[in-house]
Amino acid sequence: MIRGVRGAVTVENNDAMEIVDATEMLLEEIIRVNEISPEYVASIFISVTEDITSDFPAKAVRRFEGWSFVPVMCMREIPVPNALKLCIRMMIHLNTSKLQKDIEHVYLRGATILRPDLLKQ
């Protein structure tokens, strides 16, 4: 079964190093909590808000050993008025035997406001 794993993180500045580092932190946590191996990943979509322009967050994926063959695409989010700024969102499509309810979506830093229903008590 192919499933989607979602996540998001915010940065404080439109800074290349900060963008890639935050994306790495997000991916690392998604991998950890969902026990993901790159050979089971079909693709990764990464979107950014329109105020993130200094670098491609997909560069972070290449920092992980074994992930160089995973297809990654970056795109821009719809610029909705009053939406969360400086936000990087990720969707990983992977083959897994986990049930949908067992997938752990990860929201870090200011992005926790996007899905308060997923916060662990």
From TrEMBL:
Keywords: Amino-acid biosynthesis, Aromatic amino acid biosynthesis, Isomerase. It comes from the Bacteria. Pfam families: CM_1. Prephenate binds at residues 6, 89, 107. The keyword Amino-acid biosynthesis applies. InterPro entries: Chorismate_mutase_AroH (IPR008243), RutC-like_sf (IPR035959). It is an enzyme of class 5 (isomerase). It catalyses: chorismate = prephenate. One of its GO terms (biological process) is amino acid biosynthetic process. The keyword Isomerase applies. One of its GO terms (molecular function) is chorismate mutase activity. Its EC number is 5.4.99.5. NCBIfam families: CM_mono_aroH (TIGR01796). This is chorismate mutase. The lineage of its organism: Bacteria, Bacillati, Bacillota, Bacilli, Bacillales.
